[in-house]
Amino acid sequence: MTLHEDIRHIFHQIRPLLITCLAVLLPALYVLSGFYSVGTEERGVILRFGKLVDDQVLPGMHYHWPWPVESVRTVPATTLRTLELDFSASAPAQLQPELTTGDEDLVDMALLVQYTIGSPGRYLDSAEAPEALLEQLTRAHTIAYIGAHAIDPLLTVGRTRLQNQLTLDLQRSVESLALGLRVTSVQLRRLEPPPSIKAAFDDVARARSEKQKLIQESAGERNTQLARARSDISALRANAQAQATENLERARGYQERFIANWQAHQEAPALSRQRLYLEHLEGLLGEMQITVLTP
Length: 295
Known about the structure:
Membrane topology: Single-pass membrane protein
GO molecular function, one term: peptidase activity
CATH topology of one domain: Tetrahydropterin Synthase, Chain A
CATH architecture of one domain: 2-Layer Sandwich
CATH superfamily of one domain: Band 7 domain
Radius of gyration: 51 Å
Helix content: 55-70%
Mean pLDDT: 78
Order of helices and strands: HEEEEEEHEEHHHHEHH
Shape: rod-shaped
Protein name: Protein HflK
Pfam families: Band_7 (PF01145)
Subcellular location: Membrane
Number of helices: 8
């Protein structure tokens, strides 16, 4: 008996056993293929015949109906992602790299968008490239905001408002487009005049600072003079009040003296007339220098 015949003989003997093993093993492997795991920073998305069933499968071991009934895709949903947008570096060659403000000035700008995947199901099915669409939305909202505001607030007190407003606008846009993203923050990396006009802008800023300084100094001098004037007014008012009180008291004294003289005159007219005459004569003689000559 040749080797070939021996192999055929052995195969015929074990073929029933092989068929039995395959009949048991293949279904078991098919059933076991439904087990899957989701990482700690991931979320599982279950599709049943291509239709979304659940997009918030938590980390751990899970089971789903094997293919072709169900399929599972995992998405790093809790990972904080970053989109960097530099308008100077990413502007097309035919367009200016700077942004135009509402008062027709130019600014050079770069920002950072941080986001996560809030709805893994929408993220996988809504758009082919959600990140690219987010970049276009960021560019459009930024250009619209910069074009509606003057350069001075943008470079000074308006930076925080710019970041907050862009965050709200981007979140509303991604929700309206059902991209499944959650925008957490927008951070300015650079917001300044472009190098071509920076020297002139610095001169304007320096002149504005000097103007503000002069205004503050003038306001300080004005306040000092006003305080001095108020002090002088208070002193004059106090002196006038004291003088008025003194004159009033003197007038009351004159009044009382006149009334007393009048009452005395009513009681003894001749005596009163004589007394008044002597007092008047005494007053005149008291002011005169009298020299007595003897013959």
